[in-house]
Structure formats: C-alpha cells, structure tokens
Amino acid sequence: MRSDWLIALCTGPERLKAKDGRKVHPTQKPEALLHRVLLASSNPGDVVLDPFFGSGTTGAVAKQLGRNFIGIERNRDYARAAQRRIAAIEALPAEALKISTGKRAEPRIPFGSLIERGLVKIGDTLYDPTNRVAARVRADGSIACRDASGSIHKIGAHVQGADACNGWVFWHVRKGEALIPIDLLRQQLRAEMAASAP
Length: 198
Fold this sequence. Notes:
Blueprint: H1 31-41, E1 47-50, H2 57-64, E2 68-71, H3 76-87, H4 111-116, E3 125-127, E4 134-137, E5 143-144, E6 149-150, H5 152-160, H6 167-170, E7 172-175, E8 178-181, H7 182-196
Parallel strand pairs: 1-2
Antiparallel strand pairs: 3-4, 3-7, 4-5, 5-6, 7-8
Helix pairs in contact: 1-2, 2-3
C-alpha cells in the first residue's frame, strides 16, 4: 500500500522521555501528522476528540491551532505526561491561523445571478476583450452570437474556435466608454453576499 504523506517518525526533541531516558509512550505520533489532519478536518474553535490520547499529540497540536479538544486516556502515566506537554504549548495568534483559500473555495455564482441582480441586463451585448466579437444576453442566462447560443463558456470557446474558455474573463460588458470583464461583476456579487452573510 502506498502512502502519499511522507512524515518522519517522532524522534529527537519532539519525543517525550522520562527522567531515566526511556520513551514516555511507545507509539507517540509526530506533531506534523496531527497538524495536517487537524488542518484538513477542523476549523479554529472546533472540538477534536481523541479517544486514545496517549502522550497528547492531538491535544498539543489542537491547542496550538486554536481547536478545543477532548482526550481520553486510561494509562495515568501517559495522561500526566500529556497534561505537562499541553501546559507548555502556546496557542498561535488568530492571525496566524487564517487559511488562504483559492478560487475554487469561493461560492459559485451562475451567470444568471448577474442578470437577477441587475448587474447585467437581458439584451445587453457582451464583447470579447478586443471588442471584435459580440453576443447578446438572453433571459435564461445563456448568450447568443450569430450562429450559436449557450453558456458564457461555451460561446466564448465557440467564437475563438477553442476547446474551452473561461467565459468570466473572456466576456466584457460596456459601462460608459469602458469594457468591464464580467468577472468583476461576479466579484462584486460575491462581496455583497459575504457582507450580508450572518
């Protein structure tokens, strides 16, 4: 079985040791492993449950990442070691816990939403960036050029003779003398949605 995560074993200064130099816990997990798991599966303020708490790696990383945690451990020596370990951890500041999101994480906005909000009107003409190709906006959120109709992406690809097209950046609408990419209108709508969210 193959692993896509290459994380070193828990050794060196991260490994908890008793006063006599022996390992506190035989299978202590590396913090890097729990760091990746918690970032992928929880948000700051969430509660993380570890029913086999061991040396407290989950709690230590949860505390550092601004998560709350519940740890269950039946071995008193492991539980005491975990308590000491977690007490020494400082939570990261809120600013450091912010996660950057890519375009795919943004809410999807159908082109028809621009029409519903009045940012683009039925019958408006959309233009390519060079102002040589035009298409008309239809009531159902599709657009039509001389010989085809469909989505902003389909017609953008069609007029270019391409396999695919990002219609949001290809098509522009005229505002006064300027051509404005419809993607700017989509970003405006996203900003309005974010501002009105609870």
